Amino acid sequence: MKKYFLFLVFIFGCFVLLFKLNEQGNQLLSLEVPGDSQELISTRSGELIKGDIVRGKIKSRYSNLGQITIRFNNNHHDSDDIVLFKIKEEGNNDWYYQVKIKTDQFQPQALFPFGFPQIKDSIGRTYVFEVESLNGQQGRGISIDSQKPQFTAKSIFAKNELISNKKLSLYFIFHKILDLRYYPSIVLFSYYPFVFLLFLYYYPNNKINFYPSLSSKIESIPLIKNHLFSTLIILMIVFSLIFGGRIEDINIIFIVGTYLLYSKKYKYESRIALFYSVWLLILALILLIFGQQSSANSSAVWAYMFLWITVVQQIGEDIFHFHPTISLEEYLSQFGLKVKPKY
């Protein structure tokens, strides 16, 4: 029964992954190439006003190039600008395609797709593009968002073409899976419930039941032996900080809920959560100093969540007389950190 449940959770993760990729503009029948931010140059930093031009260059890795997507920021106001998008192969004098787009269609911090007639033989070729503001006004303009990727090249494949050509289908599936490396946070978001349940399945009663020879080696590692789930949760949080971006509500619910259940099982005292909260807040300040605003915001959110855990556990200790058995000093000592116990 557990195996079937794990399989269903994995399938559910696949659907979530497809949904989140589509939400990010990564269509099911497309292959993407993220652009190098250094290849995106604007005549003006910040808001684009009339006459300003953003120029970019990208090499297509696939055939059927049909879209260039660019991430814009509306700077917290409505924009009534019109931009002129142009694209051509590098070295050509004439533009391959031009189109005017109203900026009121742009979503904040989202990749906007500029479509054009498919270029069948685009594989291995380099293309240049321009986005020119035609009506931009100071205080009402759009700008290029700093979140990466700032732009991508997207190749579109027809369903009938993939069905009829087995070799092309295998090529597409292989590269579609390979492209997931550009979306690590989405992959984590989609599959970490499955990974966690996999640990629960193979690690009942603190015993790893698969591959006995490997199990003994794994269990000999103190970090895994004593704090497998704590380590897993910490890695998830670190992962979200490294790759930045918006923290989904379900991520918070899952990780915080898991920590509460795990701390209840092993009777952690509230100071352990407070320890995480303080260090995450310090980390947020450090990241902010170094200009990593997105990661700093994520760290601050996690600090706030662990502060709430501290409050909940403190209420349990003071009002409901919950008696923890593992203190902060004992918890840290199992990670090899020696702390003088409180008196």
Descriptive account of the structure:
The chain crosses the membrane at residues 182-203, 224-244, 273-291. Keywords: Membrane, Transmembrane, Transmembrane helix. Residues 204-211 have low confidence and may be disordered. The protein folds into 2 domains: 30-179, Sandwich (Jelly Rolls), CATH 2.60.120.380; 182-333, no CATH class. A hairpin with a 7-residue loop joins β5 (82-89) and β6 (97-102). It has 10 helices and 10 strands. It is of the alpha+beta class and 343 residues long.
Compact summary:
Helix content is 47%, strand content 18%. The protein is of the alpha+beta class and 343 residues long.
Helix/strand class = alpha+beta
Domain module tally: 2
Question: What's the count of strands?
Answer: 10
Largest beta sheet, briefly? 5 strands, antiparallel
Give the low-confidence spans.
204-211
Order of helices and strands: HEEEEEEEEEEHHHHHHHHH
Mean pLDDT: 79
Q: What global shape is seen?
A: globular
Distance between the termini: 49 Å
Indicate the proportion of strand residues: 15-25%
> What is the gyration radius calculated from CA atoms?
25 Å
Total helices: the number is 10
Task: Classify the helix fraction into a percent range.
Answer: 40-55%
Offer a few descriptive terms.
343 residues; alpha+beta; Jelly Rolls; 2 domains; 5-stranded antiparallel β-sheet; globular; transmembrane
Question: Strands, helices and their partners?
Answer:
Layout: H1 2-23, E1 30-34, E2 40-42, E3 53-59, E4 65-73, E5 82-89, E6 97-102, E7 111-119, E8 126-133, E9 143-144, E10 151-156, H2 159-164, H3 166-178, H4 184-202, H5 212-219, H6 222-243, H7 249-266, H8 270-289, H9 293-318, H10 328-333
Antiparallel strand pairs: 1-10, 2-3, 3-8, 4-7, 4-9, 4-10, 5-6, 5-8
Helix pairs in contact: 1-4, 4-6, 6-7, 6-9, 8-9
Transmembrane segments: 182-203, 224-244, 273-291
Keywords: Membrane, Transmembrane, Transmembrane helix
